[in-house]
Structure formats: C-alpha cells, structure tokens
Amino acid sequence: MQTPTLAEARFRSKTCHIAFSRHSSFLLPAMAAALLLSSVDRSLRAQQPSASPETAKDARTQADAYFEADKPRRAVAILAAAARQHPEDRVLGAMLYSSIRDHVWHMPQILPVKHSGEVRALAFSDDGQMFASGSASGEIWVSPTEPKNGQDAAAGRIVLPKTESQIAGLAFSKDGSRLAAVSKVEGLRIIDVAAKNAVFEAPRPAQAVTAFADAAPRDRVAFGTADGKIVVVDTATGKVVAELEQPGGPIQALVFSRRSQKLAAACHGGVTRVWDLETGKPVGDGIHQEGSVLSVDFGFDDSYVVTGGDDKNVHFWKLPEGTQALPAADCKTSVLKVRMSPDGSRLAAMLDDGSIKFWDALSAKELPYEVREDGTFNDMSWSRTGLRVATGSQDNQATVWSARTGDRWGEELNHDSPVLAVTYSVDGKLLATGSADGTARLWRTDGGKAMPTVRTHQARALSAFYSRDGKHIVTTSEDHTALHWISGEVRPAGPALKHKGDVTCGSFNPDATRLLTSDVTGVVQLWDTTTHKPEGEPFKHKSAVNFVDFQPDGKRFVTASAAGASVWSLDNRTKPLTVITHPGKEKNEIKYARFSPNGKWLATASTDGTARIWDAATFKPVTEPITRGYPVLCTRFSPDSSRLVVTGEDGQAVVYDTATWKPVGMPVLLEGAVFSAAITTDNRFLVLASFLTNAVQFFDIETGEPLGPGLIIPSQPTRVDYNLAEENVIVACDDGTVRTYGTPFVDHDTPAWACELAERVVGYRHTGGDEFADVDSTVSDIAAYVAAAPLAQEDDFSRLARWKLTAGSERTTMPRIRTTVATNIDRRLEERSIDALYECHEAAPVDDLAYAALSVYLDNGRQSEFLADMVLSHKNASPLARAFAASALVNAGRIEEAEKIMDEALAAAPDNPQVLRREAKLHARLMHKERGIELFEKALALEPNNYETHRTYGWALLHFDQPADAAKHFQAAEELAGDMVDDLVAGLCLSAARQKNDKEAIAAYRRLIELDPAWKESSYLTSLRGWTPRQLSDLEQIRKNAVAKK
After folding, report:
1. 577 FRET partner, CA 20 to 30 A, in 366, 429, 523, 610?
2. Among residues 433, 438, 384, 436, which one has the least CA distance to residue 413?
3. How many Cα atoms within 13 Å fall on the side-chain side of residue 996?
4. Is 532 part of any domain?
5. Do residues 658 and 766 both lie within one domain?
6. 415: in domain
7. In DSSP terms, which residues pair with 668 in a beta bridge?
8. The CATH number of the domain where 656 resides is what?
9. pTM of the model
10. Would you state the torsion angle of the CA atoms of residues 390, 392, 393, 394, taken in this order, to the nearest 10 degrees?
11. What does the pLDDT look like over 555-589, one tens digit per residue?
12. Would 508 be classed as within a structural domain?
C-alpha cells in the first residue's frame, strides 16, 4: 500500500503563540444585564455585515491573512462574522475559540472620552478610582475608572473649569481631592475636584509653559517656561515651594528626584541644572553637553542624573561634580526621552528612530533587546513594577511591552490618530492613552497569557501518556525515572518509579491500577499504582525497549525492541507469547507498537520504511504494508479504532480508514520528522509534534490544513498525547518539562452570543470586504453580556466566557484545565528557575503572589527588593505571598524585618506547608535549631511526600551539623525525584564526609561527575553560588580524592 506522494500533500507553515486575556469580574444584576443585552443586540443588528466571504473556507483564508499581517483583531472579526453565518463549521468555531483564548486582548475599561482638542495630559489618582484628561483646547475632565455604561459614565464625569490654552500637565494630590492643572498660557491652578473651583492659582507666567513634572511621593508639581523660569508648588497647601531660574531660553524638561528633595531641569543651550528644594540652592555648577538636552531623569539614589538629547548620546552625570559617572551610551540618533525604571536598576531611552533601548543603570551596559515600531514613538511609561513599558506612537496605537525581553505584551491598543500620551495607574491594572483627535481611552492591561500546567523531570522528558479515562498520567525521562501523576495535580502521586537507564515509555492498564514502564537497558517493569511498588520481576529484552502498550483487556502487552514487537502475558515473565518482525533482509528497528482501542489490531512502525497492521489474536497481517520509503516513527489508532495515523521521518502524517486501509482526507507535510501524533475523538483533527518545530500543531484531517494557531512550546517536544475526556494535550519536552494545554477543538456549534462576545473583546465587527466597524464595549458591558447570554454549564464557549472574566493567580491556567496559576507558581518556584517564574507571571501579570515569587530568584537584587517591598505594602497580599517577599528581604540582608514578616505570615496561615517551609529555612539560616526543626517537622506532617521539604530539611540539618539525619532526608527526596538530582547527591556526599565515611563520600562525588563532568574540575566548584565556604572546602577535598588515580 503506497502513501500519497509529497506533491499531493498540503502544508502551510504558521508562526503562532499562546496568549490570552483575562479580566476581573464585573457581573451586573440579571435584570440589568438582560436589558443591556437586548438594547445592544438591536443596535448591532443595524450594522450587520454588508458583505462577507462566500464560504467558511474563504473566511478562514482571509482570517489567516490578517493573522499573518499581525492584525489579529480584524482576523477575529472575520471569524466571528463567518461563524455567525456558519455555526455548524467546527473548524471556524475552533479558530474563533482559540483566537479569543490565545491572545492578550487589552479591553476598554470605560468608553472613550471625547475632547475637542488633542490630549497630551493624563493622570490617575493614587487609589485608581479617577483619571483626569486635559486637551489642547483647555478642557479638563475627571472620569471615574469604575466601568459603567455610556450614559452613566458621562453622568459621573466631572467637568472642571476650562482654560484658554492647551493643558500641559495634570497631577492629583495624594488624597485625590485636588487636581493640579498646568496650561500653556495661564500656568498652574490647583482645583478642588468636588467643588470644581480653583483653591490656588500661581501667577500667570510671562511666557508659555514648556515643561511639567509631578512628584510621586509628595504633593508637589513644577512647571518651566520659555524664558527659563521654574515654579515649584505644594499642591496640598497651595504654597510656592521654590522659584528658580535658568535664563537664556526655554526649559525643555523637568523631573523630581525619587524623594522629591531635588529638581532637575533640561535647559537651553545644552545645560542641565539641579536644585536642592530644601534650600533652594543649585547642586553644583550645572552640567554642559553639546546640542539640546531634551530629557532628564535621576538615578536610583539621586546621586547622578541621566540626560538625552540632540548629541545622540545618553549621559550619566555625577552630582554635584557634574562629571561623567558612567560612560556615555551612543544611540546613533536623537534621544527624545530618558526614564529610569521605578526600582532604579534600568534605564529606558526613547529614540527618534521608532525604538526604545535599555541599559543597566548601575553599569551603563546596554541590555540585549529593544522595543521597535515603524512609526516614531511620542511617549513611553514604565509600569510601577518595572516589568512592562507602554508606548504611544504615530502609528495610531499604544503598545504594552515586556521590559525583560522587548517582546510585545498582547495586542496593540488602537486609536484613530497618533497616540501622544500614555500613563499607568499606580496598581498597574489600567493604562490611559491620549491621542491627536482628542480621544482619551482607559484600558485594562492586566490580561495574562494562557499557560500550561507544567510538571517536571530532572532531565529530558521522553514520553507522557494518559490513562484511558484521562484521570492518570505517566511521564518518563532520561533521569531514569517514570512518574505517576493524577490529572490536574502538579505533584507526583507517589515516589519515583526508578530504572537503571533512560525510561522510554509508560502505559496504564484499562483501570489504571497497574502501570508498565520500559527503558533503554531492555527492562519492562510492572508497577502497582496505589503502592508504587514493582509487581514481580521485570520483563527483560536484549536491546532497548522503544515502546510499551497494554492490550485493552489488560491481560497482555506489547513491546517494541530492536527488530521485534514482543507480545507478553502478565503471567509469564520469561518468554513472550510471540515476537512480530518485519520481513526483509535489511536491518530495521521497530519504533512503535500499539494496539487499537477495540483490541482487534496491532500496528507497528519500523525504520524499514513501513507500518504494518496485525491481527491482535492471530498476529498475522491484515493488509498490505503501508510503505513510506523513510523510517516510520509513529502509528496510532483513533479512539474508536476507525482511523489510523502514520507518521515518519519524511515529515508526513497520513490518516487511513481501518475499514479499507485506504488514505482519507489530505496528508499533512511538516518541515521535520513527525514523531508523535494523535487523532481526536470525532476523527476530524490531528494533533502532531515534529522535529525542528517547537510547537504542537493541529490539522483538519479532511483538508490537511492547519487549524488556526498552534501551541508554541519553549522546548522541542518529544511526545504528545490527547486526553479524550477533557480535550487537553500533554507534551513531553527536551527541557525536562511535561506541559498540559487545552486544545482548540470545540464540541458543539458556535452560538450566536459567542460571535458577539468575540466582537466585543476585539472591538471590531466585519462589515464586508476589508471594511470594519468599531464596537465600543467596556469590561463591564462584556461581563453583563456574558451574564445575560444563554450559557450552558460545561460547553466550550461558556467555559471560555466565564474564564475570560476571572482574574488573579487563583484562576485556572486555561478554560478546560483544572489547575490554578497559584498552584503552578508554588510548584515552579521549586525549580529555582527565573524563566519558569516569568512564565507564571505572564499568566497573572498583576498579582502579588506572582510578583513575590519573582522577587525570590531575580538576579537583579534591586528589582527583587523593590517587588518584595511593593507586595508587602499591599494589605491584601496572601500569607504565602508575604512569605515569598520576606525571603527576598533575607537575600537583601534585611533579616530582622524578614523574620517579623515571616512570623506574621505563619500566624495567618499556621497550617500552610509552603509558609512553614519558608519560615523553617529562615530559622535554619539564623541557626535557630529547635525552631527550625519544629517547623520542618510540622510541614512534613502535613505533606509527608513533599520533595522540596525533604530537600531543604536535609540542607538545614547539615547546617545544624546533624549529617546522619540530613542524609535520611536527602535519601527521602531521592525516593521522590530519582537518583539524578545533583543537589541531593552533593548533600549525600557532604553528609557522608561529615560522618568520616570517606568511601561513601567519594562514591557520591563520582556520581556527581557521572551526572555532569564539570564536577571533576576545581574551577566548577568556585563558580557555584549559594554554598557556604565550609561546604565548598569540603567538596574540594572530596573532589581531589575522587579524581585521584586509584
């Protein structure tokens, strides 16, 4: 049987990503929601599309084109319009579902505020309840940030007295009762917001205002004028703090120091001057540079200033000397704006070539990423955490960026004209934008990315498979272990199932009471999944076992090893019932052997270029071989056994009808070898993982076309499996992680309300051809619409809608997945990987637990301490978040403060094992032996099989000079995680040495060298961080003995 030729295969390569948006719930009462739904439906029916793609396929093609052009809002509008006309098209439904879920959509918090002139001045009150906007026509409006419908929003808006000229700057007082407003001509007024009248007016300046600044920690504002004069005013008292002057030309820019004690001004003629506001005297004699100075900011401790301007450099100037504190940074183009991150550790410079560059503010070293758009940036703003940057550009959009990578965070925030101003609320949830057409908008920017549930091994993960009911998972790895997990949990259900070599595969029996695992030494072991102990002696092979699979009756199983597929009975461990081989003289290896779910057939895949189907009772061929010409790597039946997918090194995936053994649909061709595949329950779609593609991709079997965006994986996938019950996929990866994702498949027609929901989320409706109409809808409007929609309890779009309107780390990671972001944060903190913690932060970007977890392991000490202090300033931060933040303070040397915070966290959560472990570690560090041991023992009483508690307890006991007890906990941790964790092996090595057991210590050190040859070198020990001098000295002595010739 010949497979279709490559020329017949269809293939389309796509670049895609996982992301999603989530927003806090603002559900209105049911009656109000129903009225709102009815009125909006009537208004939107009036603007139904005048034209649309002729077929669902045309719509998919058009949407794909918009995705490729990086216009996802329009793509979703196309899909929504098409799905409304073709609700039965499951491909359209899946594309619509995944595009809503997998993108970060920054949605409007309130309806647009329409001024009569361009908006360059924006400000939030400290409590985030109000935001002010000022226009070029002199309008000053204060709008509530609480979402309301359009009529109520207008009614709640406070219109303050209009000025004669453009508003140059706005700032609320700390209590939000007053608003400082600076206009170009009139200068400064301080307005009582409730009374709508001015309580202070500074003298009218002789010339126009050219610069404005406000002091975040104190009630102060400053403005500078075209004739070089500067006025500083206390907005709480209405008193002038200072009147300063730098004659000869305009003040280009102003900025207060972090404690508001100093003011810096970029002045005419390349001069930067700094004043001490407590004395009113200049700091130094002024700083001089070539060209105009366009922007200035203070360093983290106010000991230096940073300037940028026409000379195309960023300068770091020491105060009061005015000399270079750090080398100047060559930007090769004019510097429009410089801003320090809130923690003072990084500097961002906005350049006139449409880019933003970043530097380490302590060394002036340029960071290896930048932000760039086609149009010139008009403004930029750091979020309070310093983890994100927002920009407004000439391209009629605002954009949120990761300040760690320079990658865009979510989709653009669209305006109809250039965006001139951007500013964050204090809590980072809201972003205000102002544009040239007079529109001010308020956006929710706390939407995070969809994230997988992540489980980990200590080395490359080789496979991951579900039990038949989807409730259990087995994962296998090159760390010589298999792990049994309960679906939805992120900790193993029991100890590691250990082998003496790489574990290649695992398979459950039908009721998941038993588990088979195979390895490269030729061993297959049967395990009891309740006790996690082996059942009897292993089944032995002469070569590595590539695959193992239970027959559906649970009495027999098949193994793929070398050139044979051996069928075994559980009752006979000495000899297989039969060994199936592929005929032919050429040497071959069977890579895959799997039974059909109905138990009738056995399919084998071989490097001889064929897949063969065998009768599972007689073990005779049932059809001609499927010939590929290249090694076949995977054969797998559909859940109902009516289909078989065959994949191989030729990059093809072809599906066959098991009634005729003929191909069905169109083959799929990928760039690399396809080594893993699954067919969905309805036989409509393929799930594929291939070499050279860090992604799991989904394809329509009938057309061979990709099903919208796939799932980008941070590492090369090695195996993929599909959970029939929950429609999730699990992916084993090269980096040792095993990741569970929700699939894009939908199990029902697309409801009309879901199409409407999509249009509200993206803000567009397709009206025909390349035409789109704006759909203005706020977060509360969307929540009300969902509340009024006829949601089913468990259908896909209903779960998606509810999931979109939840917030925080307590939400689930994806609509169909049961684990929460918080659970993943706690588990991934144990990896001590900053990349893992950033992945969690991206799923909950405005969340104290995510911030606190990041603070523990950030390599930027200043940023770590800043985030910890920010979390601790929040009264509602959870005890665990406070415990994490206290750990960051320990790293910063603030031990007494951290101890007090830990005690308070433990008092609030006395039975939280994670909080107990955190405080126990602190007491161990302080050599509080009795208290530390007491806390560790309590944590273990609550979670006896917690790997991390045993590991950290072992190191604490070693620190207490109890090496024998320490060894017991290192050994307990090895039982849970396997024997290839260098941290545990090193602990055992030191424990043996402390007990004068040199032979055991040397043996343990040689294990370290086997894990990583770097341990053989003395230089490797000196590069280790976080170890005590005594530990490193002991390890060095053991190393010398271990590497010495016998």
Report:
1. 610
2. 433
3. 0
4. yes
5. no
6. no
7. 10, 653
8. 2.130.10.10
9. 0.91
10. 170
11. 999 999 999 999 999 999 999 999 999 998 778 99
12. yes
